[in-house]
Amino acid sequence: MRFQDRQEAAGKLVQALAGYRGQNPLVLAVPRGAVPMGRVIADALDGELDVVLVRKLGAPGNPELAVGSVDEGGHMYIAEHARAMGISDSYLEHEKQAQIETMRQRRAQYTPVRAPINPAGRVVIVVDDGLATGSTMIAALRAVRARKPKKLIAAVAVAPPETLVRMRPEADDVVCLHAPESFYAVGQFFVDFPQVSDTEVIATLQSGDAN
Questions:
Q1: CATH second-level architecture of 55-109?
Q2: Do β-strands 151-158 and 123-130 pair in parallel, antiparallel, or remain unpaired?
Q3: CATH number of the domain located at residue range(s) 6-53+118-209 in this protein
Q4: What is the mean pLDDT of residues 171-186?
Q5: What's this model's pTM, rounded to 2 decimal places?
Q6: CA-CA distances (angstroms) from residue 51 to 115, 179, 184?
Q7: Any bridge partners for residue 156, and if so which?
Q8: pLDDT tens-digit readout, 17-74
Q9: Which of 21, 105, 151, 208 falls between 20 and 30 A from 62, CA-CA?
């Protein structure tokens, strides 16, 4: 299965999540790629949209390889393979602080005129366009779970089966449109998969705040 673009994937997720329409769900998108998808889903389900800020912790010398992740509150998820790679606590702490600073800057950019929407007591749907290791989504789900939502759902377009296995204990429900055994990168499952800019994220969030 290949999606034409994020909009098509979002439309398919709406169908899979239709049972949450009428429950005023809070859709939390993982920036940046999932934010346009989150807008489609939130609007279709008569919910609200916000972002959940988490950042992956990159491996020494290979920042694209996730060895864990961290949320806005500083809570870390360390992947099992991180210790096997011999990564030190001091490196992880330094990487954590760098990513927290990036999240502070993004929060100031993304929602400068309001606080993050409180997920407590809400049906919360955490959305991403796709997962590889799942580290970022796991950190996002744990961050939201700590705020005591009524129900916590993870919704993604594509992820490898082993990632879904790791993720399922973190959510009350997991919705994934495609779980291929052969997985190289999220982008291989989209015909059109452009990067999403901070400017687009801000405009997408403001379009909801103005309503």
A1: 2-Layer Sandwich (3.30)
A2: parallel
A3: 3.40.50.2020
A4: 96
A5: 0.88
A6: 11, 24, 26
A7: 128, 176
A8: 999 999 999 999 999 999 999 999 999 999 999 999 988 899 999 988 888 888 888 8
A9: 105
* Distance of alpha carbon 203 from alpha carbon 31, whole angstroms: 13
Q: Residues, the chain, total? A: 211
Residue 175 CB neighbour total at 10 angstroms: 17
pLDDT tens by residue, 58-98: 999 998 888 888 888 888 888 888 888 989 999 999 999 99
Q: Both tokens of residue 1?
A: 């299965």
Burial class (CB within 10 angstroms; exposed 0-12, middle 13-18, buried 19+) of 19:
exposed
Token pair 């929407």: residue: 117
Q: Which amino acid is at 15?
A: Q
Closest to 67 in 3D by CA, of 36, 37, 94, 107: 94
Question: Which residues face 124 on adjacent strands?
Answer: 26, 152
| Residues 140, 211: Cα–Cα separation, whole Å | 26
Spans of all domains in the chain: 6-53+118-209, 55-109
CA distance 18 to 180: 24
CA distance 182 to 61: 26
- If one counts every other C-beta atom within 10 angstroms of the C-beta of residue 187, the result is 15
